[in-house]
Amino acid sequence: MTAATGTGPMLRLLGMLPAAARGEMVRLYTELLATQVRSIGERLRTPDDPEVVALVHKVAGSAAMMQDQDLSLPARDMEKALREQRTADALACWPLVDAAAARTLAVLAGQASPAAAPPLLPPSLPPAT
Prior knowledge:
Elements: H1 8-15, H2 19-43, H3 50-65, H4 69-83, H5 87-109
Helix pairs in contact: 2-3, 2-5, 3-4, 4-5
């Protein structure tokens, strides 16, 4: 597994959005991620269930789209192990995915209000008049 970069890139991406869009993106991604991670945890009792692979794939893809390598990398490793029917390896990846998702959700919780979000413009750029 490659070293993760943390949630900085995700925060920069969110910071590029207008406040209303940023709030909606945070809300939607938080709900989706929490639901999918909970479902993966419940379905891992039967790791050969195709729905587990589909859920892990969705988490990995969404995290990559959000530039959250801290989550996307272990999720991709887990997805690959599941697809290759390496159940023990996939189950070993799960705590990493679950912990990374928890960190992402904690960061997103701090972004829930527009006041907590990063500024839209870097400090060196004056606002348009």
